[in-house]
């Protein structure tokens, strides 16, 4: 497998009810004010994120009992949460859709605060070492969510995707990210090559993962500030993206023609790039 700007504006968060607690209005907040998240890790992480405006919290009776200690602690830290609405599991499932693995909990929330390349560059300037992940037209929300989960585990500053040919921040992506959507910025750019140029001006080197890369991943010398660039499964990196990389690396495979899911490749590359060693300055 081939492994793989328009300046973003921050939109003001919708206003929150005083104290962030108490029952919702009789008709409740419109779902157009936010989007649904579900699953224990995704919802608890969103509730703990002070940048998230939390509008409605739905729970089954079983989940409310099991999660009461965590929810109480979060409510104290946030000085209130939306009053939990207890629903039968079947009712919750109907609201979220038959394919939602909700684990008895769902949250209607406003979007995370938007970040841009400039935010990444400023954060990197305060660190001796920094990693970002760039996904070139990876469209599966589960793959992007899994990449974000690995990015959080290895302390990456952000995951950068294209405006087009990339998933929105849906509940499916958030569930796959298992809370990482609250700690790792997902940044959208209109032009990856331009974004890579901005990162290079901030001291990053770009390492593209490609099955035909001249350097094996375990032999690569990563810079203190590295942008890992991965392409979509099957298609790999686009030509202009590949040409913008400072080096191309491959993950050695035991069997000819073997391949890895892009999220697995990202996890392996993040591990390799996070190990301090000498490399380009």
**CATH class term of the largest domain:** Alpha Beta
Stretches where pLDDT is under 50 for at least 5 consecutive residues are 1-30
Distance between the termini: 30 Å
Please report the total strand number as a whole number. 11
Query: Going by CATH, what is the homologous superfamily of the largest domain?
Result: SPOUT methyltransferase, trefoil knot domain
What's the alpha carbon Rg, rounded to whole Å? Answer: 20 Å
Order of helices and strands: EHEHHEHEHEHEHEHEEEHEH
Global morphology = elongated
Major sheet strand order = 7-6-5-10-8-11-9
CATH architecture call of the largest domain: 3-Layer(aba) Sandwich
- Helix and strand content put the structural class at alpha/beta
* Rounded mean pLDDT score: 85
Strand content: 15-25%
Query: How many helical elements?
Result: 10
Percent range of helical residues: 25-40%
Task: Name the assembly state.
Answer: single chain
Number of domains: 2
CATH topology of the largest domain: Alpha/beta knot
User: What does the main sheet amount to?
Assistant: 7 strands, parallel
What do these coordinates show?
With 281 residues, the protein is an alpha/beta fold. The chain has two domains: 31-109, 60s Ribosomal Protein L30, Chain: A (2-Layer Sandwich), CATH 3.30.1330.30; 117-274, SPOUT methyltransferase, trefoil knot domain (Alpha/beta knot). The chain is 32% helix and 18% strand. The chain contains ten helices and eleven strands. It has helices at residues 40-48, 61-66, 68-78, 89-96, 117-125, 141-153, 171-177, 192-201, 239-243, 262-274, and strands at 35-38, 54-59, 84-86, 105-109, 130-136, 159-162, 186-189, 205-209, 215-216, 225-231, 247-250. The protein has a seven-stranded parallel beta sheet, sandwiched between helices. The longest helix is centred in the middle third of the chain and has 13 residues, at 141-153. The chain is elongated. The two termini are 30 Å apart. Mean pLDDT is 85; it is low at 1-30.
């Amino acid at each position: 497998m081939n492994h793989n700007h328009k300046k973003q504006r921050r939109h003001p968060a919708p206003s929150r009810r005083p104290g962030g607690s108490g029952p919702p209005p009789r008709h409740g907040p419109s779902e157009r004010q936010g989007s649904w998240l579900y699953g224990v890790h995704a919802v608890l992480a969103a509730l703990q994120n002070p940048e998230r405006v939390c509008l409605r919290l739905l729970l089954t009776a079983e989940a409310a009992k099991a999660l009461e200690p965590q929810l109480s602690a979060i409510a104290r830290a946030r000085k209130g949460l939306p009053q939990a609405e207890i629903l039968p599991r079947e009712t919750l499932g109907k609201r979220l859709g038959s394919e939602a693995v909700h684990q008895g909990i769902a949250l209607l929330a406003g979007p995370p605060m938007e970040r841009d390349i400039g935010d990444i560059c400023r954060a990197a300037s305060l660190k001796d070492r920094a990693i970002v992940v760039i996904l070139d037209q990876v469209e599966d929300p589960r793959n992007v969510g899994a990449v974000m989960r690995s990015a959080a585990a290895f302390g990456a500053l952000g995951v950068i995707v294209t405006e087009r040919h990339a998933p929105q921040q849906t509940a499916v992506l958030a569930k796959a990210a298992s809370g990482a959507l609250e700690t790792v910025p997902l940044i959208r750019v209109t032009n990856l090559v331009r974004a890579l140029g901005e990162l290079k001006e901030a001291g990053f080197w770009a390492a593209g993962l490609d099955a035909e890369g001249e350097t094996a991943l375990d032999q690569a010398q990563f810079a203190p500030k590295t942008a890992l660039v991965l392409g979509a499964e099957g298609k790999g990196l686009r030509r202009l993206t590949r040409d913008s990389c400072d080096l191309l690396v491959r993950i050695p495979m035991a069997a000819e023609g073997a391949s890895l899911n892009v999220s697995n490749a990202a996890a392996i590359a993040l591990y390799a790039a996070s190990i301090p060693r000498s490399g380009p300055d």
